[in-house]
Design brief:
With 319 residues, the protein is of the alpha+beta class. It has 2 domains: 204 residues, OB fold (Dihydrolipoamide Acetyltransferase, E2P); 101 residues, no CATH class. 20% of the residues lie in helices and 24% in strands. Strands 1-2-3-10-9 form a 5-stranded mixed β-barrel. A 4-stranded mixed β-sheet has the order 13-18-14-15, with no helix packed on it. A two-stranded antiparallel sheet has the order 4-12. β7 and β8 form a beta hairpin. The radius of gyration is 19 Å and the shape is globular. It comes from Microdochium bolleyi. InterPro entries: SNase_OB-fold_sf, Staphylococal_nuclease_OB-fold. This is Probable endonuclease LCL3.
Length: 319
């Protein structure tokens, strides 16, 4: 499983313009690469990589989906603040940032404004962000005295389960701080490995899992536009629900029909439901759409398959 090594620095604050700086969350972080040309050569389905005037680019962490801290679709929405902020804070901590103080979603102060790190990337998403696994520090697997460096900026690196376990992505999954979100571009062996981590966290009631709802353990009830922001549900389902609410809908009686109508726009995601949770090495599974695994009526909402058993087919404008 070849990934492209990107060297650079993770950036969380602009000291000259702190009110205009990055807004990290539990699955995205700003990165300043050593060179842009390598990123411009990564595979993409639509738009090119989106660099800022400072040469920074967003990194969307592969295989995970954190609770939304600020989702600006129509009005700005959020999910349960405790879970979203915990994932965000742990991501920053694992990259080496300490004493981070937030003002709204910007960083007021921290031990560092930026720190060195690296990314193992495999593509550009439809929003112009790099999709990849992120790692703190330099390029050494362990202490530089006992492990060789991964390579130079732009090198091809084989990413297996052992190396993935050193990533921030894996750490957040293993602690149950994020939901899994597996796209078809993630190699099946890695998907199987990471799904097992997420299931272990769920079965051990770690992180957000004791508060998770609208899942195979049971529906979320009493879900309205006013209450959905307090819930812990799969973020992809949350994003679809708030798009539905933004169109003036007040209950879920028409939600599945609405999803079907959104198929061409991508909101009724094409998915592969794996025959066995986390399986992905073979061809087992059945094709479906998101509406096929959702139960919704009145103020009740449920995802009927665990997210680690779903493989999402990427589309334009994916979210």
């Amino acid at each position: 499983m070849a990934y492209t090594l990107l060297l650079g620095r993770f950036v969380i604050r602009y000291p000259d313009l702190p009110n205009q700086g990055p807004e990290p969350d539990g699955d995205t972080i700003t990165f300043n690469p050593d060179d842009q040309d390598v990123i411009k050569g990564l595979p993409r389905s639509s738009r090119p990589p989106k660099f800022s005037g400072r040469g920074n680019i967003g990194i969307r962490l592969e295989a995970i989906d954190a609770l939304e801290t600020h989702f600006p679709k129509g009005p700005t929405w959020h999910q349960e603040k405790q879970g979203g902020e915990k994932a965000r804070d742990e991501l920053l901590h694992r990259l080496g940032f300490r004493d981070v103080v937030f003002r709204n979603h910007k960083i007021l102060s921290a031990s560092h404004d930026e720190l060195p790190g690296y990314v193992l990337a495999n593509s550009i998403d439809p929003n112009g962000r790099v999709i990849g696994f992120i790692f703190a520090g330099g390029t050494a697997l362990d202490d530089a005295e006992v492990a060789p460096p991964l390579g130079a900026h732009g090198d091809s690196v084989t990413l297996d389960g052992e190396l993935a376990d050193r990533s921030v992505n894996s750490g957040l999954l293993a602690e149950g701080l994020v939901y899994p979100a597996f796209y078809g571009t993630l190699p099946p062996p890695l998907r199987t490995h990471l799904a097992a981590q997420s299931r272990a966290a769920r079965q051990s009631n770690l992180g957000l899992w004791p508060r998770s709802t609208a899942d195979p353990n049971g529906p979320a009830r009493g879900v309205t536009k006013e209450t959905i922001e307090d819930l812990v549900i799969w973020p992809k389902l949350f994003r679809r629900a708030v798009a539905y609410f933004n169109e003036g809908n007040t209950n879920f009686d028409g939600f599945k029909a609405w999803l079907r109508k959104q198929a061409r726009g991508g909101d009724d995601d094409e998915i592969l439901i794996l025959e066995e949770e986390g399986d992905g090495e073979g061809s087992g599974g059945r094709l479906a759409n998101l509406h096929d695994v959702v139960a919704a009526s009145g103020t009740s909402l449920q995802l009927q398959v665990w997210p680690d058993a779903i493989v999402i087919e990427p589309k334009r404008g994916e979210s």
